[in-house]
Amino acid sequence: MNISNQQLNTQQSKTSVDPENKIVPNHIMVNSRWCNSELVTKIQANVRVLFFDDKPDIDFRPANSVCVVYISEAELVSQATAYKKKMVRLRRADVFKIIVLAEKTSMTTQYYANVQNFCVFELGLVLLPVSSQADAAGILTQLFYTGTQPEKNPFKRIRNSSEEDQSSSSLLATLQCIPGLGVTNAKLLLVNFGSINGIIEASFESLSNVVGKSIAARIIDFLS
């Protein structure tokens, strides 16, 4: 029996999955509060999703070992503390590699340093700035392809596809938020390491060979 995309999305939105279990192959697991959001719509253009509703501290699981917490523009501007509490709980549980996506816009720039200090320096988490939900969708898609197929370079594997266009442009925009990096070095990093995960896992020596010691140190400080 053929099922339309609309029917499939409706079925997915009603599916509850325990995020502590392994993710279903070829899916990104998404907290049900994101149902019908722009972010999920962008993800579904490339990857199927399954929704869960019993783990409020987690927003996304693009791979078995990774969970993602999303801090919205509204949360940053209001200086709410709820996101800090859930990140502390996840950090103490020590089950997943935690990646934090935070909306860095003209309205949140003045608050971003506080978020960076808390996430990176106090908790030791990976913090990535995003300019929009569409930007975040590209990064989550990239994390999905890297986490589920680590033996392949996703930029080569999906060359000339809409997935590549979305993911690479989002990653370039994110990498250029690193002070002093610039578009040329951002492209060099993607060519040599292929993904956000590849850059995060790269050693100082490996980064230095690509962008020099000074920029490598900034990358380590920004992403570690």
Structure at a glance:
The chain contains 12 helices and 6 strands. It is an alpha/beta fold and 224 residues long.
Which runs of at least 5 residues are low in confidence (pLDDT < 50)?
A: 1-20, 149-167
Largest sheet: 6 strands, mixed
- The total count of helices amounts to 12
- What's the CATH architecture of the largest domain? 3-Layer(aba) Sandwich
Rg from alpha-carbon coordinates: 17 Å
Shape: globular
Strand proportion: 5-15%
Mean of residue pLDDT values: 76
Number of domains: 2
Strand order of the largest sheet: 2-1-3-4-5-6
Structural class, from secondary structure content? Answer: alpha/beta
Helix content: 40-55%
Summarize the structure in words.
Residues 24-143 form the Fanconi anemia core complex-associated protein 24 pseudonuclease domain. This protein is of the alpha/beta class and 224 residues long. The chain folds into two domains: 27-152, 3-Layer(aba) Sandwich (Rossmann fold), CATH 3.40.50; 165-223, DNA polymerase, domain 1 (Orthogonal Bundle). Helices cover 53% and strands 14% of the residues. A six-stranded mixed beta sheet has the order 2-1-3-4-5-6, sandwiched between helices. Helix 2 (38-44) packs parallel to helix 6 (133-148). The longest helix is centred in the middle third of the chain and has 16 residues, at 133-148. The termini are far apart. Mean pLDDT is 76; it is low at 1-20 and 149-167.
